[in-house]
Design goal:
The protein is mainly alpha-helical and 190 residues long. The chain contains nine helices and no strands. It has one domain: Tetracycline Repressor, domain 2 (Orthogonal Bundle), CATH 1.10.357.
């Protein structure tokens, strides 16, 4: 059987995927580039050659994650002429797609946690602001509605990270109470 050689962009995507898995598992500070290389099946110098530094690789992961969230929002099934509540509900259903890709919300949380690093912090603040603005643009949400949507989304992101929400959820009474309340809310926040 003949092996086909990967293109540079395919190899870069493979390393980025491995980095997302590694950063999701152990965060920015604890993740080593040699672990990312092992997961990707490449050498550690190759990882550095592709992305420069661990910080630049982490930023590439954050860009991927934030871009995915923005795309999920843009792909939401918002009916033409939908009012703000209906549009937010559609965005919330779309966000479930992002949460199902468990490593992505974990990297987002690690990005927020690593925001004391000036470069990472600047990037996280800019991208988080873009996502916040996109919610308003797509739904017509005012500040209060957009803030509630974001707050609920972050709550669900944290609950997904703790494995008390999502398909692999550990059922705990307090988590079930929150999730039930979110599902039954008459004015959707997410």
């Amino acid at each position: 059987m003949t092996r086909t050689r990967m293109t540079a962009s395919e190899r870069s995507a493979q390393v980025l995927e491995a980095a997302i898995r590694a950063f999701a598992e152990t965060g920015y500070a604890a993740t080593k580039t040699d672990e990312i290389a092992r997961i990707a099946g490449v050498s550690q110098p190759y990882v550095i050659r592709l992305f420069g530094t661990k910080q630049q690789l982490f930023l590439a992961c954050l860009i991927e994650v934030c871009t995915r969230i923005e795309q999920v929002f843009r792909d939401a099934d918002i009916a033409p002429g939908a009012d703000t509540s209906e549009a937010l509900r559609a965005l919330g259903q779309g966000y479930d797609v992002f949460l199902a890709e468990r490593e992505l919300p974990l990297v987002l949380l690690h990005g927020a946690a690593a925001s004391a690093d000036p470069v990472i912090g600047d990037h996280m603040r800019e991208r988080f602001g873009r996502m916040y603005r996109l919610i308003g643009e797509l739904t017509g949400a005012d500040t209060l509605q957009a803030r509630r949507f974001v707050a609920t989304g972050m709550l669900l992101t944290i609950m997904t990270a703790m494995q008390v929400a999502g398909s692999d959820a550990i059922e705990l009474p307090w988590a079930t109470e929150i999730l039930t309340d979110l599902r039954s809310a008459t004015t959707p926040s997410c």
